[in-house]
User: Which sequence fits this backbone?
């Protein structure tokens, strides 16, 4: 027989609310907010948190990982082209070489290890929260994001109107995948032109994504597939090497910018 400690409903509720609010108080102001918890966002958050940067990941779903669980066509094998398999080595994800320089791993294994690595590094995660708008400061520099609970976005306006809340940060990273949701918010305000991503061409896309990862607008860094949308680059389909390397690069760029602020 197992005898559990006598903690009831009220203690459980207080534990959840108390700890959540402690984090929320602190992360109302972060060094970096990463929007989107897919492979690029998680790599960016991991890289920053490892350097001691206060990093908050805002993710609209109740899970993390984005497209990294499934390798395409509902099949859960993920592919990675060299040299990105070195990141799988660092994450201790097993893989096989399927053809020269092309590696295959199990999506759930790779994705869960990456999530754990970002959390182990100290990145904080806010789930079920959607980016609703952007905070702009002097000279229209990005200074944070406006968020609302994901379920609020599905409520009919005539039923209720729930104001969002604002979070401040020194930098924001748009890692929202094809949507490039933060970049699109700037476009909506006429501050940036967004060409949208081009047709599939993996051998060109991966190199270009890494090359273009960086500050797309003052205070806003773009990573992962959002880079293709922001710069009109070809899409790449189901391969993830450049997502991981782009996320790592976004962390390096953000860290450098933080030193200069
Ligand atoms: O789509 P996603 O995995 O983006 P990524 O890191 O990787 C792309 C690949 O998965 C794949 C590909 C290349 O391999 O073509 O698509 O660039 O993860 C994006 C995350 O952002 C969240 C979304 O739920 C997902 O977890 N997200 C998207 N829009 C918002 C958001 C938003 N407005 N607010 C908060 N989270």
Assistant:
């Amino acid at each position: 027989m197992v005898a559990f400690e006598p903690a009831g409903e009220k203690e459980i509720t207080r534990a959840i609310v108390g700890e959540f609010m402690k984090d929320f108080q602190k992360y109302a102001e972060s060094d970096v907010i990463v929007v989107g918890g897919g492979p690029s966002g998680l790599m960016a958050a991991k890289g920053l948190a490892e350097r001691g940067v206060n990093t908050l990941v805002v993710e609209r779903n109740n899970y993390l990982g984005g497209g990294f669980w499934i390798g395409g066509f509902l099949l859960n094998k993920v592919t990675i082209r060299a040299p990105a398999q070195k990141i799988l080595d660092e994450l201790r994800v097993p893989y096989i070489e399927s053809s020269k320089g092309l590696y295959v791993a199990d999506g759930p294994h790779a994705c869960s290890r990456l999530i754990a690595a970002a959390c182990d590094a100290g990145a904080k995660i806010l789930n079920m929260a959607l980016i609703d708008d952007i905070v702009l400061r002097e000279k229209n520099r990005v200074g944070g994001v406006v968020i609302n609970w994901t379920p609020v976005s599905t409520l009919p306006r005539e039923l209720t109107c729930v104001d969002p809340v604002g979070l401040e940060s020194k930098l924001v990273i748009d890692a929202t995948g094809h949507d490039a949701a933060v970049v699109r918010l700037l476009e909506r305000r006429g501050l940036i032109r967004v060409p949208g991503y081009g047709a599939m061409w993996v051998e060109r896309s991966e190199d270009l994504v890494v090359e273009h990862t960086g500050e797309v607008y003052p205070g806003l860094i773009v990573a992962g597939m959002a880079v293709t949308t922001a710069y009109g680059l070809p899409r790449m389909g189901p391969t993830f090497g450049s997502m991981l390397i782009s996320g790592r690069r976004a962390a390096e760029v953000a860290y450098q910018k933080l030193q200069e602020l």
